[in-house]
Write a structure and sequence with these properties.
The chain has about 675 residues and is of the alpha/beta class. It folds into two domains: about 15-335, ABC transporter transmembrane region fold; about 400-675, 3-Layer(aba) Sandwich (Rossmann fold), CATH 3.40.50. The chain is about 60% helix and about 10% strand. The protein has 25 helices and ten strands. The strands form two sheets. Strands 6-7-8-3-9-10 form a six-stranded mixed beta sheet, with helices on both faces. A four-stranded antiparallel beta sheet has the order 2-1-4-5. Helix 2 packs across helix 4, helix 5 crosses helix 8 (about 205-220) and helix 5 (about 125-135) packs antiparallel against helix 11 (about 295-335). The longest helix is centred in the middle third of the chain and has 53 residues, at about 235-285. The chain starts with a helix and ends in a 6-residue tail after the last helix.
Length: about 675
């Protein structure tokens, strides 16, 4: 274990490497930043000296007795000071924008691409969520992570140049002043290093409260959660949890800030020794005639500036080190390895901006037609290319899917959710997966979708592993309706087709909506299928009901028309009449496909070719509806209970039946879900 931890530490980037990464990205994106940095360095180092020179020239002019000499010297000095100040401020403001644009345009974009494209197992388990939570903080703020590395490194370079130039002059004056300042610098570094180490060792005390407060903040503004919050009076619960996380963060920050206060006390003692030594030495030189009053003023100014430089070296080095560690949290997430291999040919040809994106046909759901490898905005031509016409989808051959001795345990849990599961879904076969909560249905769906690899065993598609096929190519074969998925706050058409309006097959979008039973509702809207869902991104957006949302997601699966169809509780939000209609539509959808249907209403599984009954991570019963009823096992027992309520034909009773055998949403397997946040 220790060896692994040491290995992980060795992989951390050094401060200098992180600085190199940030500025390489900046100079590549903004070549004009190079001269800006050079001019800024010259101005920032020179200005303090000019500022010290002005009062010295004033004293020189006064003691010379010549008003003309006084005015000329002061005028020149002040003019030079103003010019250098304007140049420095101009470069500083330009660089501030570039620091921010590089953080957002390079590192934040890379983070988001990674979060979208990486294996699902790198973002769902709670340990991975912690890594992702720390990683996003490395690129999400001006005063932390990547941008802080960028700004602090530049100022630290200014400070180092100032120390070198001013220190040379002071050393020639008296080496003892330098010795005192080096002592101050050494103590400063040691004390700040202690503070930085404490921050490193307790970083989760800072990032975790913010991640959890972010969750509470989002849900406090969530429209759906808002109903429960008001009806069940959850306001106090939200406030108590929020206050609890604030107290945890405050406790960490209080000790952390105290550790940063100790260097200030040390500096005060050394500053007293420095000033006493410098003033004693310089006053002696004035009284002995070695220097005049003007030179005294210059030397005092140089000593004060050098002292400030020395202080800033230790301060900014500690700041840079902390920022570098935050940036390393970003690298830790970015370096998460994918288990599934990707065999997309387009990845190599799509350029940097398109790296990791799927091919056009896959991204739009092949039914909608192919998308160009690079976007129009990335083209070097001033005239955007004409969008390709939607291509007709060719029927794909339904595959055979085999689970061979598959077991699965979620990260952070020691209890397996699936135990040596074996089954074979034949091509064109309709399979029903049924079972109580925690039986393993949702986990099987995740494995079927290539979101997780099995812990042991293998999943074969027509005799090949998912890695042999390529996970993205395999996922392009799947049309799936997840029960716990919500539509994105874009247009209805974009949600159905999964691509931009110009690239999609509009007729297919409307046909899919009609088959799902939602077209009449959509046509009643002023913008029809171009209407946005919710008002998050468009003030004219609409909020769909639970049943309408489920129909929209069903239309999305119909549009993609993959040879593998997976429906996870597709009728859980529908009334019995709509449910019956959807079952008929499901039969049509499942034609010429390998289909898997998960439901807690056993009556809906009668039309399936085979039914698998799961219990405690294992398949305990298997067969047709008739065979399982004749067997008289657990399936028969639950079916009889549910059928009693359906015969009553009372909607309220139906709800009571559902309670005894609810769908497994995201709470499956108490043991496995403990390892996952927010499910």
């Amino acid at each position: 274990m220790k060896a692994k931890e040491n290995s992980a530490k060795e992989k951390k980037n050094s401060i200098f490497k992180n600085v190199f990464i940030v500025y390489s990205a900046m100079f590549k994106r903004y070549p004009t930043a190079v001269p800006l940095v050079i001019v800024y360095l010259v101005g920032a180092v020179t200005l303090p000296f000019i500022n010290t020179l002005i009062p010295a020239l004033a004293i020189k002019g006064i003691t010379s007795g010549s008003a003309q000499t006084f005015m000329i010297n002061i005028g020149i000095a002040v003019s030079v000071f103003c010019v250098f100040t304007c140049i420095k401020v101009f470069c500083e403001k330009k660089m501030q924008l570039k620091h921010t644009y590089v953080r957002l345009g390079v590192f934040m974009v890379n983070f988001l691409k990674k979060a979208i494209n990486t294996d699902y197992l790198n973002i769902e388990p709670q340990p991975k969520q912690k890594i992702m939570g720390k990683g996003i903080q490395g690129v999400s703020g001006t005063y932390q992570g990547a941008e802080r590395v960028s700004t602090t490194a530049l100022y630290l370079l200014v400070v180092m140049l100032g120390v070198l130039s001013y220190g040379t002059v002071i050393f020639m004056l008296d080496w003892k002043i330098i010795a005192v300042m080096i002592g101050m610098f050494t103590f400063d570094i040691l004390l700040r290093n202690h503070a930085v180490k404490y921050g490193d060792n307790n970083r989760e005390l800072s990032t975790e409260p913010w991640r959890k407060m972010g969750y509470l903040e989002r849900n406090s503004m969530n429209i759906s959660a808002g109903k429960d919050t008001r009806i069940f009076n959850l306001k106090g619960l939200f406030s108590r949890h929020f206050d609890s996380h604030i107290k945890t963060y405050k406790k960490f920050r209080s000790k952390y800030q105290l550790l940063w206060y100790y260097p200030t006390l040390s500096d005060s003692a050394f500053n007293f020794a420095r000033d006493w030594l410098a003033y004693t030495l310089l006053i002696h030189k004035v009284l002995s005639g070695q220097i005049d009053a003007a030179e005294f003023t210059i030397y005092i100014g140089l000593v004060a500036s050098f002292s400030e430089w020395i202080y800033d070296v230790s301060w900014n080095f500690a700041e840079l080190r902390e920022a570098s560690h935050q940036f390393n949290d970003y690298h830790e997430f970015m370096n998460q390895k994918d288990v599934f291999e990707r065999h997309e040919e387009s990845a190599a040809s799509s350029g940097a901006a398109g790296a990791g994106e799927r091919s056009g046909a896959a991204a739009c759901g092949a039914a909608g037609g192919a998308r160009n490898g690079t976007r129009a905005s990335e083209s070097s031509s001033s005239v955007p290319p004409t969008p390709p016409k939607p291509a007709k989808r060719e029927s794909a051959k339904p595959p055979q899917i085999e689970f061979r001795h598959v077991s699965f345990t979620y990260e952070g849990s020691d209890k397996p959710v699936l135990k040596d599961v074996n089954f074979n879904f034949r091509a064109n076969e309709k399979i029903a997966l049924v079972g109580n909560n925690g039986a393993g249905k949702t986990t099987i769906v995740k494995l079927l979708c290539g979101l997780y690899p099995p812990t042991t065993g293998e999943i074969l598609i027509d005799g090949k592993s998912i890695n042999d096929i390529g996970v993205e190519k395999y996922q392009d074969m799947i049309s799936v309706l997840f029960q716990d998925t919500s539509p994105i706050a874009l247009s209805i058409a974009e949600n159905v087709a999964g691509c931009e309006l110009a690239d999609m097959d509009r007729e297919r979008v409307r046909s899919s909506l009609k088959e799902a039973g939602l077209l009449e509702k959509i046509d009643s809207l002023s913008n029809k299928e171009e209407t946005y869902i919710t008002q998050t991104l468009n003030e004219n957006g609409v909020v769909l009901s639970g049943g309408e949302t489920q129909k929209l997601l069903l239309a999305k699966a119909m549009y993609k028309d993959g040879p593998v169809l997976i429906l996870d509780e597709p009728t859980s939000a529908l009334d019995p009449i709509a449910e019956s209609r959807i079952y008929e539509e499901y039969n049509n959808m499942a034609a010429n496909k390998t289909a898997v249907f998960i439901s807690h209403r056993l009556a809906s599984t009668k039309f399936c070719d085979r039914i698998l009954f799961l219990d405690d991570g294992q398949i305990v019963e298997e067969g047709t509806h008739g065979e399982l009823m004749e067997k008289g096992g657990k399936y028969r027992e639950i079916f009889d209970i549910q059928s009693h309520y359906y015969k009553e034909s009372v909607p309220e009773d139906e709800e009571g039946a559902d309670a005894s055998f609810e769908a497994d949403t995201s709470s499956e397997a108490g043991a496995n879900e403990e390892a996952t946040d927010g499910r």
